[in-house]
């Protein structure tokens, strides 16, 4: 089975966010594999271990994404590919990224493509379904269970808390929802092995794309921080009185009940 | 500049979802005086067209087909592309719901267009239609514009106020026949786990529990309060990891992002992970035994106390208030 994982390096949003020069300040911040993509990597490894085949993790980013790709290899992926857009793409959007990924994947005969359902930085959740459309293969988003039997897949999809049991056949793209699995930590031998696993680097030229082909359809014109929230009111006195006061505040002051 | 906009309506248990009315309001802003056309898919949905119009759509186009009874990306994509072909709109607004998140990227990709997801506000500024959306789990916001192609947007529930319902307003409800074929995914079964009635992402009131609820049974007093307020139950990752509740209830960075009018956090310490999912709620109440808990820093109102003591009192007090109201 030929399995591809779409991975994004993201800013750890547990970090404090500041803005400088109109952009999110990345100096000194921790970067991680997007948490939902970790589920995707784990699932790909489990599917490979059960069915045989190979897992390739692919990321569109810059040289700095190599670290997260190595982590994916250390978890157990077989190969990694970095599509480095540092020199070619200044302001990409989801159209840009999906077009690049689809160009890369179109001749790879992938049986299964797995991505996270959303990245925690940009939060759009668009890239994976766009890639499926561009490749003209079916997709199922926010899955919490995946069973593969030959070329058939039985999937549980999370739909705002409800679950749908869906049958589809390969080739197929799915996106991981929390609950799909418990991602493993890279083991020490895994980390050692990862150093010798192939990590290829491509640029747009290698995919016969030029900047115009992937030019963004949307543009960010401003980034700002939400107004700082004043610390609230912690009530005091007898518990019974506090409860009465709270109900009154919610009813009369906040007017939400 | 006036534009023609489509709004893809969503039906849940036989009624239009509230997010659909919010999407109409967003489309009205985007249309800037142009026409707003509601779109509805399903087995038998024409009867809902009138309400779509009463909330602001100028007219409604339906595609009725038994293959559209349940949402599938393949079925809805075929129907929507047929409507787009007939109507030639300049933009489409979806809810940022399970359906909108699944379908909108595909249609945008098919039509070589951008898509602005998870929009919480929009306005016309000069020549541009400017969309606001949260990034970095709500810790920052960005303003975006479309520079090429159609205007596609999904709007986050509970953020854009619907227009007032105008019972006197009428508009044309027409149907388009589309031959839906080759569904590549088959839904075998739907298991309803979500709290009955109120959907977490659309709930006006959420009562959420953390590790402090201590057990599955510990959610009972939260449910009683939530029932009185017509709300939904949520949970922190801690409560889900400890198996007190299903992951479908999880609010946070991994999990759902919610913006209710009232968020009552019970026994939740307020880890950054959790705050990412709820800090944009309009009013936050924290109930926690630990006066140092982080949740008090984002709460509008706090009670330091045992949730098992506070919640029954609070439920009784609200009951009384709502009976008298």
Please explain how this structure is put together.
The complex is a heterodimer of chains A (257) and B (325). Chain A is of the alpha/beta class and 257 residues long. Helices cover 27% and strands 31% of the residues of chain A. Chain A folds into 2 domains: 2-214, Rossmann fold (3-Layer(aba) Sandwich), CATH 3.40.50; 226-257. Chain A contains 6 helices and 15 strands. Chain A has a 9-stranded mixed β-sheet, sandwiched between helices. In chain A, strands 2-5 form a two-stranded antiparallel ribbon. In chain A, strand 10 and strand 11 (162-169) form a beta hairpin. In chain A, helix 2 (66-75) packs across helix 5 (188-194) and helix 3 packs across helix 4. The N and C termini of chain A lie far apart (55 Å). Chain B is of the alpha/beta class and 325 residues long. Chain B folds into 2 domains: 5-175, HUPs (Rossmann fold); 200-324, TPP-binding domain (Rossmann fold, 3-Layer(aba) Sandwich), CATH 3.40.50. Chain B has helices at residues 18-31, 49-54, 73-87, 98-110, 220-229, 237-241, 272-278, 295-298, 307-324; strands at residues 5-8, 11-12, 15-16, 36-42, 59-64, 91-95, 116-119, 121-125, 128-135, 140-146, 151-155, 173-175, 185-191, 205-209, 232-235, 262-266, 283-288, 301-304. Chain B is globular. The N and C termini of chain B lie far apart (46 Å). The mean pLDDT of chain B is 94. At the A-B interface, helix 3, helix 4, strand 9, strand 10 and strand 11 of A face helix 4, strand 7, strand 9, strand 10 and strand 13 of B. Chain A: Its cofactor is AMP. Chain A: Heterodimer of an alpha and a beta subunit. Chain A: InterPro entries: ET-Flavoprotein_bsu_CS, ETF_a/b_N, ETF_b, ETF_beta_N, Rossmann-like_a/b/a_fold.
List the helices and strands and how they pair.
The complex is a heterodimer of chains A (257) and B (325).
Chain A: E1 2-6, E2 9-11, E3 19-20, E4 23-24, E5 31-33, H1 35-51, E6 54-61, H2 66-75, E7 79-84, H3 94-105, E8 112-116, H4 127-135, E9 139-149, E10 152-159, E11 162-169, E12 172-176, H5 188-194, E13 199-202, E14 218-224, E15 233-234, H6 239-253
Parallel strand pairs in A: 1-6, 1-8, 6-7, 7-13, 8-12, 9-12
Antiparallel strand pairs in A: 2-5, 3-4, 9-10, 10-11
Chain B: E1 5-8, E2 11-12, E3 15-16, H1 18-31, E4 36-42, H2 49-54, E5 59-64, H3 73-87, E6 91-95, H4 98-110, E7 116-119, E8 121-125, E9 128-135, E10 140-146, E11 151-155, E12 173-175, E13 185-191, E14 205-209, H5 220-229, E15 232-235, H6 237-241, E16 262-266, H7 272-278, E17 283-288, H8 295-298, E18 301-304, H9 307-324
Parallel strand pairs in B: 1-4, 1-6, 4-5, 5-12, 6-11, 7-11, 14-15, 14-16, 16-17, 17-18
Antiparallel strand pairs in B: 2-3, 8-9, 9-10
Helix pairs in contact in B: 3-4, 5-9
């Amino acid at each position: 089975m030929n399995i591809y994982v779409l991975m994004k390096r993201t800013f750890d949003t547990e970090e404090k966010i500041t803005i400088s020069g109109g952009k999110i300040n990345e100096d000194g911040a921790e970067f991680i594999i997007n948490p939902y993509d970790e589920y995707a990597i784990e699932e790909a490894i489990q599917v490979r271990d059960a069915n045989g085949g190979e897992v390739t993790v692919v990321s569109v980013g810059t040289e700095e994404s190599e670290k997260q790709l190595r982590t994916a290899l250390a978890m157990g992926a077989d190969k990694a590919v970095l599509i480095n857009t540092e020199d070619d793409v200044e302001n990409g959007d989801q159209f840009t990224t999906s077009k690049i990924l689809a160009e890369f994947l179109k001749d790879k005969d992938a049986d299964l493509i797995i991505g996270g359902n959303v990245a925690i930085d940009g939060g759009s959740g668009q890239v994976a379904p766009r890639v499926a459309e561009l490749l003209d293969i079916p997709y199922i988003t926010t899955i919490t269970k995946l069973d593969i039997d030959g070329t058939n897949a039985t999937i549980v999809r999370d739909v705002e808390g409800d679950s749908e049991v869906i049958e589809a056949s390969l080739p197929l793209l799915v996106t991981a929802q929390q609950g799909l699995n418990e991602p493993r930590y890279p083991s020490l031998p895994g980390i050692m092995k990862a150093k010798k696993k192939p990590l290829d680097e491509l640029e747009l030229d290698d995919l016969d794309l030029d900047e115009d082909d992937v030019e963004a359809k949307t543009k960010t014109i401003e980034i700002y921080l939400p107004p700082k929230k004043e610390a609230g009111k912690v009530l005091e006195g007898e518990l019974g009185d506090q409860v009465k006061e709270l109900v009154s505040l919610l009813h009369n002051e906040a007017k939400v009940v | 500049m006036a534009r023609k906009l489509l709004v893809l309506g969503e039906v849940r248990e036989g009624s239009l979802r509230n997010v659909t009315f919010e999407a109409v309001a967003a489309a009205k802003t985007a249309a800037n005086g142009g026409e707003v056309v509601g779109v509805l898919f399903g087995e038998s949905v024409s009867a809902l067209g009138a309400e779509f119009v009463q909330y602001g759509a100028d007219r409604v186009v339906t595609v009725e087909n038994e293959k559209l009874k349940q949402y599938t990306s393949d079925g809805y994509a075929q129907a929507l592309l047929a409507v787009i072909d007939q109507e030639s709109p300049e933009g489409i607004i979806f809810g940022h719901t399970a359906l909108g998140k699944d379908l909108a990227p595909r249609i945008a990709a098919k039509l070589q267009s951008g898509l602005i997801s998870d929009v919480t506000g929009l306005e016309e500024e000069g020549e541009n239609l400017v969309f606001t959306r949260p990034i970095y789990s709500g810790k920052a916001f960005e303003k975006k514009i479309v520079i090429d192609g159609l205007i596609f947007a999904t709007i986050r529930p509970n953020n854009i106020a619907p227009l007032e319902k105008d019972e006197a307003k009428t508009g044309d409800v027409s149907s388009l026949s589309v031959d839906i074929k080759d569904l590549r995914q088959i839904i075998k079964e739907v298991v309803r786990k979500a709290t009955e009635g109120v959907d977490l992402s659309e709930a006006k009131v959420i009562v959420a529990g953390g590790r402090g609820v201590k057990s599955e049974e510990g959610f009972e007093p939260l449910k009683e309060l939530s029932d009185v307020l017509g709300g939904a139950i949520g949970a922190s990752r801690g409560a889900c990891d400890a198996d007190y509740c299903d992951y479908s209830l999880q609010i946070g960075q991994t999990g759902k992002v919610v913006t209710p009018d009232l968020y009552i956090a019970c026994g939740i310490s307020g880890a950054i992970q959790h705050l990412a999912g709820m800090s944009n709620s309009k009013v936050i109440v924290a109930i926690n035994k630990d006066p140092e808990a982080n949740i008090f820093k984002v709460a509008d109102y706090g009670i330091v106390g045992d949730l098992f003591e506070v919640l029954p009192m609070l439920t009784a007090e609200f009951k009384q208030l709502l009976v008298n109201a």
